[in-house]
Structure formats: C-alpha cells, structure tokens
Amino acid sequence: SSGINAEYGGVIDEIVQSWGVHECWLYCIDFLEKIDSLYQFRVKWSIPTRRKPIPTATATVFFTIDTSKPEAEVTYVLEAQRLIHTPGKSVFREKWLKDIITTKTMMMDDVTF
After folding, report:
1. Which of 40, 46, 92, 98 is the right S-S partner for 55, CB 3.0 to 4.6 Å?
2. Do residues 46 and 98 make contact, with C-beta atoms less than 8 angstroms apart?
3. CA 69/CA 10 separation, integer angstroms
4. Which of 75, 57, 56, 55 has the alpha carbon at shortest distance from 65?
5. What are the pLDDT digits (tens) for 26-53?
6. Any residues with CB less than 8 A from the CB of 43 and at least 6 apart, and which?
7. Is pLDDT of 1 > 80?
8. Helix (H, G, I), strand (E, B) or coil at 11
C-alpha cells in the first residue's frame, strides 16, 4: 500500500495543490482501498490553530483513480455529497470545505454528552 500511496497519492497531491486553498488549511492523503482497477483515497482537511492543534471538525474529499483506461481518470466527491467532480472540469471552491466544517461544528454544538 505504501507504493500505491507514493504513486497515486502524488497525483492527488498535485491536484489538491492546484486548488489554491489558503495556507491555513492542512490536509493528509490516505489510501483507502483498491477494488479492481479503482484506487480510493481520502483527503482530510482541517484548520489547526495554536489554541486548538487538534481541530474539532474536519472536511473530507474522497478521490477515485480509475486505471482501467490507458489514461487514468481521477474523480472526487465531497463528504456527504453525491456530485462527482472531475479535476480540470470542476472548479474547486474552498467554501465547500468551510461549509462542511461549519455544519459539523453546529451539529456538535447541538449535541450534549
């Protein structure tokens, strides 16, 4: 799996860097699984701060790399959404990440333990 992460994780990293998201956002790329010719990755986003180095909420973007064709196809889906985006065709918006984190934070505020 480390070879897969090195090979295809670099492709995803290039795509994510091309989005031009503000530098306050940090992300990590994790290989999830391979099903036939589909490689699935998770990119977890957060905004850690000095006061809260471990963020209370994260936003996830799920990537799929389809290697069944001569030229691999990359698509991504945002957490809790169904719309499939294609890098280069869809314009990524930082607001999508903010909206996911805002929704999660509001839900956490409503839940009492």
Report:
1. 46
2. no
3. 19
4. 75
5. 999 999 999 999 999 999 999 998 998 8
6. 12, 16, 27, 28, 29, 30, 60, 61, 62, 63
7. no
8. helix
DSSP letters for 43-54: EEEE---SS-SS
59 three-state secondary structure: strand
Q: Are 79 and 100 in contact (CB under 8 A)?
A: yes
Question: How does DSSP classify residue 23?
Answer: T
Confidence check: pLDDT of 60 > 90: yes
Return the CA Rg of the chain. 15
> pTM here?
0.89
Going by C-alpha positions, the residue among 47, 79, 74 that lies closest to residue 62 is 79
Give the pLDDT score at 5: 65
Comparing C-alpha atoms, which of 90, 97, 96 is closest to residue 15? 90
